[in-house]
Sequence to fold (191 residues):
Amino acid sequence: MAQSVQLLLTENVGNLGIVGDIVNVKVGYARNYLLPFGYATTPSEELVAQLADKRAQAEKDLAALRKQREDMISKLNGQELTLIRACNDQGQLYGSVTQQDIASALAEVGFEVLPREVRLSTAIKRIDSFDVHVKVDSDLEADIKIWVVADRELDNEESDEMEFDNEGELIVKETKKVEKTEEQAAPAEAE
Fold:
């Protein structure tokens, strides 16, 4: 049984080719996706000739898209974004910042980037700054900086940690009590 089949693309298919390309694909991909949706057909000279105009238009569209992406990447490189997220007192986010979140934030400032084009090296799960790589094509890349900030003021004071003795009993530290002076206590008595 054949492992792959040769087909003529009748539509542009991402990561495969443009209209008029003759491609080799796995039988299952052809049978389950390309042929039922009308994206490909069996190649013939007549069909290649019929699709010549459509292919020329597709090449023009791809060239225009490429030019637009080159301009976008030149402006995108070095951009900084601030994302506001909910977190606990230690700066751990209650969720995480995803590729979709970054792509949406970029869209708000005028950069049309797909979530799959945002490359995260690690999951963003805390308040900090992160370098994010954006790759829109094999040779079109940019690096941006993401600032993840808390949605509220964090209590950054160093809290006293609990101390335990050798038996595991909690050591209670005495706190200094501020005694009221007679002047502070007097108005309270008058009322």
The chain has a mean pLDDT of 85.
